[in-house]
Amino acid sequence: MKKFGRILSVVLCFVMLLAFAACSKAPEKTDDTGLKTVESGKLIMATNAAFPPYEYYEGDKIVGIDAEIAQLIADKLGLTLEIADIEFDSIIPGVQQGKYDMGMAGMTVTDERKEKVSFSDSYAKGVQVVIVKTGSEIKSMDDIDGHKIGVQQGTTGDIYASDTPENGGYGEESVVRYANGALAVEGLKSGKVDCVIIDNEPAKAYVAANEGLEILEGTWVDEDYAISFAKDNTALQQAVNDALKELIADGSVQKVVDKYIKAD
Ligand code: GLN
């Protein structure tokens, strides 16, 4: 019994030591800014860089509206911006799991997404449009039914198009999902799909960059683009949002938008 008592006290000591070690662990990473980020001093933005003019490659650099606004925000917060190019579908899970500080990818605010992440104020608007090949038998939105529709996996275009006809969609079986917009447009060019549903500005950019494509007249619901954060990182969400508000108020956001989107 005595021996057991000794073992027990050794075990208890060990447990207490472990508990002490856990308590005295470095506090959650904060830096001079007082913000908790994945890496001290950095602001890591997750995006999908196949979404011009919001994010795309110029050489090996990711540029675009989101990249530039994020840079202005990082400058205001005294953080170094780092951009991670991942699949659109992985942005929200990555932000939720704390792999990235924020998601910025022409991302539409939806009620479903709001259950998973928190959003900044909106900094831009988008709308879904339809790209077809010039001369396509799809002449208007009403002709889409019964055709193959290319979408970017996990985007609002995907969500609307794959919904049931009762909900205004075309059904799961009509949809072909691609990892990004560029691949969906390749699918259209090679005849694997008959149209692509995608946000209006990337649609314009893809049509301008590829011969023989055009955008159908008409659009779906307006969408608000915003930056996403892990729900528990309210300090970062607020700091970024305050910076964004200032950048909207002083015209900096509009300046970036005007640089990339020329009025029609
Ligand atoms: N705005 C769309 C969405 O949030 C598409 C975004 C994107 O493909 N980068 O789902």
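^ glutamine complex. Residues 48, 51, 88, 105-108, 126, 152, 155-156, 199, 223 surround glutamine (CB under 6 Å). The chain has a mean pLDDT of 90.
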